[in-house]
Request: fold
Amino acid sequence: MTEYKYKKPCLTTLFFRSSVTFNLENLREHNELIEALLKQELHALNRKAEEYSHNLDEEQEQEFHDWKIDEYSKLTDFIPDNQRQAVFISIYSFFESTLSMLCNQLQTEIKSPLSLADINGKGIEKAKTYIKKVALAHFPSDSNEWSKIKTYGLLRNTLVHNGGLLVKSNCNPPIY
Reply:
């Protein structure tokens, strides 16, 4: 059985927990504000459509209908999807950078000659390795939460590197 250097939460982990909570709360508030603003814009569009749709001839009515559909699509699909993807990517990136900062702080605390940069791997897996093998701290890599986080990493990579396109090798055309 591995003997962990940190058996109780240290000041570093307590600081990072409070920092993470604070920043995630700010991201949540940001997202809620944007969602509320989008709802307001949608209501304004519906009011505007109601006002302008009276007394239009057939050609104007068709042009107006096309314009309304485009605007409605932006407010119900395009902008919310992009916003939600951006928030998701921000949260994941924040998590990844927080793990890196934690590793740097642990390096200082344990006075290790090895830095995170000296560890093979990428992203959260690299940080996990540092925390477990260099800092000798417990890391919940067998937890359901960690499994979900790794899945979120795959989703993040798909959003960032593949434009959100989920591609199965046997699936043609690609699935969304």
